[in-house]
Specification:
118 residues, mainly alpha, 69% helix, elongated
């Protein structure tokens, strides 16, 4: 059986969640998930995140930031796995046919290639 969380434990958890080091960690995690840009020219989203983190963040905002980081990491992992296990997704139909023929030990005839290119 788990013991119920007391209000003092909840307040302590919220205070720890909003500590400067935790907020800094959240900020860095969010920046890692964004497309890389030089810090000398931050994007509007980077500026918005920095302003939001530097202001006194409510515990709910901190929790939302943590959830957003987990979501973005999961989406990045999903895209990576999708590319890894479905390598033909980004190929056009001609390339798929050529690779399928090569897979079974055949090359496409020259007439077929010439007919497609003309």
């Amino acid at each position: 059986m788990s013991t119920p969380i007391t209000s003092s434990q909840l307040i302590l958890h919220q205070a720890m969640a909003a500590s400067p080091s935790h907020l800094r960690s959240l900020y860095r995690s969010l920046l890692r998930e964004l497309p890389h840009r030089p810090l000398s020219t931050p994007s509007p989203i980077q500026q918005r995140i920095r302003n939001s983190i530097s202001s006194n963040s409510a515990p709910m905002q901190v929790e939302e930031a943590e959830q957003y980081i987990q979501y973005v990491k999961a989406q990045r992992m999903y895209a990576t796995l999708l590319e890894r296990y479905n390598p033909g997704m980004s190929m056009d139909e001609e390339e798929k046919v050529r690779l399928t023929a090569r897979r079974v030990g055949m090359d496409l005839p020259e007439e077929w290639r010439a007919g497609k290119k003309n």
